[in-house]
Specification:
It is a single chain. The relative contact order is 0.18. A hairpin with a 7-residue loop joins strand 11 and strand 12. The protein has about 375 residues and is an alpha+beta fold. Helices cover about 40% and strands about 20% of the residues.
């Protein structure tokens, strides 16, 4: 007996359905996704830029105003400093020479003071005391310099003694020399103070009434010499160098080195970019104008693209000497019209970095 009821359909296994999807649909989807990805990458990263720019590197050298020795460095390499921050302490090189010259000049003035006539004797005695007081100040300044040098030597000997590079006897000699100079400075300070009090007492007497046209030029010359003594004494003291700007430090010299006048101790490089510099080579593709919009695209793995504007345009062609000169192959000498572009807010770039530029408005 035949049964006319249709047979139930045989269900397709899921593994077979997945296989058919992988063979028929999955390649198409992957191909479409690859095409879309290539398009996005091409648009963001592979579009040929109109120009190549370099972020300006702004730096300043911290140099010594006159010859000296570095006593202390307050910063390390690549450390960030702020404007006005102390970065180094230096000591002038042997200021005793200048003090000796001043001593000779004061001796000449002392001889001149002994030549006035008898009626100027009181005034001469007063000026003699002033000269003696000035000489005592010079000797005090010299003693202070010697004391500072002796203390520095004692500190170095202390380190050498810890390393057993010198004997205890040598260290004791240096220690006693420093103590002797300390006592000398103290005694000379008392002598200068005593002489100063005596001068003030004389100034309230009749000595000022004895000055005349003969002594006035001498008094002016003495005042000038006093100013020189004060200036040399100030220059003999250690001085501090300060950071001229905020940025990262590149240390060029180390503590203990001797420097000539004008030599740099370190260089401070700004960490925050201020502008982008580019060059238009001949033939110029467009006439640049201030305010033109420029698309700035970084070269990082996750590049950024932001709009900026031309800040200024150079007046003449000049040599391209920075990293932009290498963007043109086999061209050791090249000229370009410089343009400056402001840095868009929020764009993450570093000084010296290369960026791709595309001018959006050439009207």
């Amino acid at each position: 007996m035949n049964d006319d009821k249709p047979l139930p359909p045989i269900p397709t296994p899921l593994s077979l359905r997945w296989r058919e999807f992988r063979v028929r649909a999955l390649p198409v989807l992957f191909f479409a996704a690859a095409i879309a990805g290539v398009g996005v990458i091409w648009q963001r990263n592979l579009t040929a830029p109109m120009l190549v720019g370099a972020v300006e590197v702004r730096s300043a050298a911290v140099a010594v105003p006159y010859a000296g020795t570095i006593l202390q460095l307050n910063v390390d390499n690549f450390q960030t400093v702020t404007q006005g921050q102390p970065v180094a302490i230096l000591a002038p090189s042997d200021p005793r020479i200048s003090l000796s010259v001043l001593q000779a000049e004061l001796s000449i003035l002392q001889i001149k003071l002994g030549m006035p006539q008898a009626q100027q004797r009181n005034q001469t005695d007063y000026e003699q005391l002033r000269v003696d007081w000035m000489r005592q100040r010079v000797d005090l300044a010299t003693a202070r310099v010697n004391l500072e040098l002796a203390r520095d030597q004692l500190q170095r000997d202390d380190e050498l003694l810890k390393q057993k590079l010198i004997s205890e006897n040598d260290y004791e000699i240096a220690q006693k020399a420093a103590q002797a100079l300390d006592v000398e400075v103290s005694e000379r300070s008392n002598l200068v103070e005593t002489t100063s009090v005596a001068l003030k007492d004389l100034e309230f007497g009749d000595v000022n009434t004895l000055t005349n046209e003969t002594t006035q030029p001498l008094l002016a010359e003495l005042q000038a010499e006093e100013n020189k003594v004060a200036q040399v004494a100030a220059d003999a003291a250690p001085f501090t160098l300060f950071a001229p700007m905020t940025g990262s430090v590149n240390v060029l010299r180390q503590s203990g080195e001797n420097l000539m006048e004008g030599e740099p101790v370190l260089i401070v490089t700004a960490t925050e970019p201020e502008k982008i510099i580019s060059y238009l080579r001949q033939p110029i593709p467009f006439e640049p104008k201030v305010g033109m919009q420029v698309e700035v695209r970084t070269r990082a793995l996750q590049g950024q693209t932001m709009l900026a504007a031309i800040k200024s345009v150079g007046s003449h062609f000049e040599n391209i000497t920075n990293a932009l000169a290498m963007t043109k192959i086999n061209s050791p000498y090249d000229l370009g019209l410089p343009i400056e572009i402001n840095v868009p807010a929020g764009l993450k770039i570093r000084p010296g970095e290369l960026v791709d530029l595309t001018v959006r408005s050439t009207d």
